[in-house]
């Protein structure tokens, strides 16, 4: 048991090892990414396209991490808005490439990548919806 | 006073049963093996993984696994893995059967996890498969196996594989607990009020992704967390303790049952409240820790013994 514990902690994310980071940070803000049409109606990617919704957030965070690691001090605040927009665009393109192929109902539809951000203010949850990438 | 503590301790000790690694019976080991093979079978999927590596992960940083994304190659490997799982269930040595299956799992997961997101759902199963393969090989160390022991499993090998599987599984819970403390510099529990946001996020993903809410239970939980922040401390504190002290499950059958049921309840509550059920973990807990068939058998033995005792008592009176 101790051997596997040590291997997991040392190797980090390296299948089959992992440091099992789910809910390990409990950040003061979090977000939910989703796909919407131009009129803001959501595309139910889980129900209609078999895409687990959290994948959008995970891919977006990976893109942000790549940008963050390329900054001089490795900080998210050093990433320009243009680069952030580019990361969001990549997520939207990923979804389009996989699930809005030519011939599909979504192919001609202009899509947006949206985020619902969550924070706590005065003990209450505040939700803010924003567009991350447009058509 | 001292006597009171001694009596309480000895009663508690008797209640907990013998400490140490559990010695399973042969029928239990065979049953565990068959059930484990079934779980493995259910987790092997015919879905061909992506053939690109936009964000190389794990072994994919060094090996090009994209050959596996060819539908014909994948179908061959997938069906080969299923055959090996069946052979394993029938008693073939884990080293030869699960070894290639483990390599297949690594290749598949490396491709899937190189897409920019890492999935954690099947990791515990992979750790248990690894433990079974290593245990099967390690059992040969220091002795010369008879020819048939090279191909077929022995009781000793199955016992070692079961022990190491249990340890691998528990290690994953302990690591999850340690990571929480390390990532927040020991302040994970102090951040418990922010757990509310995680529940909101999961509910948001359910709504925006599936067009449905997570259910009345989750809604009520969210309201309760908002109204009574101490609930988050209670819920997360219990979960953290369960993870950090999960190794207690390795200390005997009764403690294994108690911890197994507690961890199962932990997964079921997360499934109910946050749609995070980790069903493979639940199945593995049932097989390696809760082991309901053994407890039913014990109950059966007890009932038979009691009924025989009653019969003999009645016989004495007649």
What does this entry look like structurally?
The complex is a heterodimer of chains A (135) and B (318). Chain A is an alpha+beta fold. In chain A, 38% of the residues lie in helices and 24% in strands. Chain A is built from 4 helices and 4 strands; from the N terminus they run αββαααββ. Chain A has helices spanning 2-11, 45-49, 54-70, 81-99, and strands at 29-37, 42-43, 111-121, 124-133. Chain A has a 4-stranded antiparallel beta sheet with strand order 2-1-3-4. In chain A, helix 3 runs antiparallel to helix 4 (81-99). Chain B has helices spanning 2-16, 26-43, 71-89, 94-112, 123-138, 147-151, 155-183, 195-210, 216-227, 230-244, 253-274, 279-290, 292-317. Chain B is mainly alpha-helical and 318 residues long. The longest helix of chain B is centred in the middle third of the chain and has 29 residues, at 155-183. The model of chain B has no long low-confidence stretch (mean pLDDT 89). The chains are: A alpha+beta (135), B mainly alpha (318). Chains A and B meet through helix 1, strand 1, helix 2, helix 3 and strand 3 of A and helix 4, helix 5, helix 7 and helix 8 of B.
How is the quaternary structure best described?
heterodimer
Q: Enumerate the strands of the largest sheet of chain A in spatial order, edge to edge or round the barrel.
A: 2-1-3-4
Structural class of chain A: alpha+beta
Q: Mind summarizing the main beta sheet of chain A?
A: 4 strands, antiparallel
Compressed to H and E, one letter per element, the order of chain A equals HEEHHHEE
> What does the average pLDDT of chain B come to?
89
Number of strands of chain B: 0
The helix count of chain B comes to 13
Percent helix range of chain B? over 70%
The H-and-E topology of chain B, N to C, reads as HHHHHHHHHHHHH
Low-confidence segments of chain B: none
The 3D shape of chain B can be described as: globular
Distance between the termini of chain B: 48 Å
Average per-residue pLDDT of chain A, rounded, comes to 89
Count of DSSP strands of chain A: 4
Class computed from helices, strands and strand pairing of chain B? mainly alpha
Rg of chain B to the nearest angstrom? 24 Å
| Residues in helices of chain A, as a percent range | 25-40%
Provide the β-strand percentage band of chain A.
15-25%
